[in-house]
Amino acid sequence: MKEAYEHCEALVRERDRERFLATLFAPADKRPHLHALYAFDLEVAHVPDAVREPMAGEIRFQWWREALAGERKEEASANPVAAALLDTINRCGLPADGLIATIGARQFDLLGQPMESRDLLYTYLDATSGKIIELAARILDRAWEPGLAARHAGRATGLARMLRNIAFDVSKGRLFVPLDLLAAHEVHTVSVLGGENSDGLRTVLAELRARADTELSVLRQSSLPAQVLPAFLPTALTPLYLARMRKSGYDPFRSDVRVSALRTQFALWRAARFGKL
Questions:
Q1: pLDDT class for 181, splitting at 50, 70, 90?
Q2: Is-contact 88 33, C-beta < 8 A?
């Protein structure tokens, strides 16, 4: 099992540096379980980009559903991410149905359908970003009740991530910007999928950034115990990304909004040190 957890740690370190750095502020005995959870999230999120046909992706999703349901014990034991995750579920008391719900939400990415409304977008973020944060907090403190904190954190970080990845998603034929919001500002999906940065689209994206600000503001009013804070630390990076998107001349299809490694590390350290996101 040690090798399985080490595999998960390496995977998170390589593909999600922000969450990896956040785990360094968690107790040492909790980190392997956080790595297992985040590695699962990365693997499932990568499925749509790893297959050419939706059916092939659905087969992979179904494998994960069955593995989490305990129906593929031998195969799961041979998969380091699955093995570590199942061990984490047992040791930390994680609900498998929450992870299965995350897989279900990820089918949106696979099918390439446009996001119809803001309500559907928030439901998607609750089942993906929000659920992973909630489960990470449960790993850190099984007795803590997250209430709505994980939902607000998931929506804030999820919106920021969606806005950062617009160009990549469009290149894959995916559109997470809600159609009802585009329609309200007379923005055609064809222009967005074609990489056109219009005045209407800028207004739409500004509204989504404002919603991320609101979610973050509500989260900051929550009382987060110190022991679960590492699960929420990546949220502290959201204002940095939003600030870069608000700069003059920002183009969602062409501007580089990456945050430097030094600023990332400092923001995470400051949030952990003072307990403020």
A1: very high
A2: yes
